[in-house]
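Technical note accompanying the year-one report. For the benefit of new consortium partners, we illustrate the data format agreed upon in the data management plan: each record pairs a sequence with a C-alpha cell string. No post-processing was applied to the example shown here.
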Amino acid sequence: MMQSDDFGFGTQIRKSPYFDATVRWGAKGFSVYNHMYIPRDFGDPVQNFWHLVNDAILCDVAVERQVEITGPDAAAFTQMLTPRNLSGMAVGQCKYILITNQDGGILNDPILLRLADNHFWISLADSDILLWAQGVAVHAGMDVSICEPDVSPLQLQGPGSGRVMQALLGESIEDLRYYWLRELELDGIPLVVSRTGWSSELGYEIYLRDGSRGDELWEKIMTVGAPLGLKPGHTSTIRRIEAGMLSYHADADSQTNPYELGLDRLVDLDMDIDFIGKRALRQIYNKGVSRKQVGLIIEGEPLQGPNTTFWPIEIAGKTVGQVTSAVYSPRLKQNIALAMIAVESAVTGTAVSVATRASTMKAHIADFPFYDPKKALAAQ
C-alpha cells in the first residue's frame, strides 16, 4: 500500500488537509495546481466518470484556494477586479466571474462567494490571484484586507450527492439553491456549503474552515456516503469537456479575452464602475474578435487520454487554430474537443484536420456544450 510520503517534490508543494485520506482511499497519482497536490488518479478515469454521472464522487479540491477580501471597501474593491456586474449580488450568493488584466485578458475564472456585506471569497482556478489582488490594493486607495484564509474545499458531485448531503447534514440542506451558500457546522467542524462544482452535475462544494479537521471530515463524509454509492474520485476531464467548462491554462489564459470565449454575459461595459480592463474590453467589443472558441468532433479511434499538447487545426494545409482540450466521451461515443480557431473558419459543420503527434485526424466544428447545454442537471 502506498504511503503519503511516497509522493513528493519537496516541501515547496503544499499538501491539502485531505491528502493522507485520499492516499488511504486509493489515490495513485497527483498533479500540481495552485502550488498544491491534487489527486488525478483513483484508477480508471472512465470508471470515475461513470461514478460521477450515475452516483456520486468525493473530490479533494483544496487546491481551489480562497482569496478573502474584507474591510469597509471590500465590495467596491471586489467589483473593480471583475467585469461582471455584482450590484445585485446578495449575501449568501455565489457567482461565476472573470478576473481581467488591463488588456482585457483573463487572469482567472473563479467562483465568487459573498459571506457578508463586506466579506468575499474568490475560489480560484490555477493562477496567483492572491498576489494580483494584493498588488492592486497597494495603489487602490481603498480600505481592504486581503489574505488566504484557512479554507479547503471538497467537491461532492453527482446525482446521488443530494442524498449523501441530506444524510450528512439533515434534510434542510435540500433547500439550498443553485449558486447559493450556507454557513454551518458538522459535529463542531466549521463549514461553508455551496451548490456549486466543476462537473455540471448536481453537486455541492464543502469548504472546511479548520485545516486540522480535514481527515476527520473526509472520513465522516465517506462513512455516511459509501452505503449510498459515494466513491472517492477526482475531477473528470471527460465530464467537464462534455459540459464545455474551461480549464485555465488550457482553454484560456492572460492572452484570451471573454468575447473569444462567448462569455459576453460576464462583461458589463455599461456599469459606472471603472473595473480593470474596461477600456480594453470596450475596444475589443467594438472591433470584434479574430478568433473564437468552438467545439470539435474528432473522427477515428477513441483517444487514449486527454491531449497534453495544443494540436494544430488545419484547413487545406493552412493552420487556422488549435485544439485546447480533447478527450473521448464514452457516453457520447465520440472524441470531443474544445478549440480556439480563426473566426472566419468557426462555422458549425466546417471540416478540418487535427494534427496530433501520432497522426492527422479528420474533424468538424460542432455546437457545444456537447451534453446538457442548459445545465439542467446541475440546477435541478
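Partners are asked to follow this layout when depositing records. The chain has nine helices and 21 strands.
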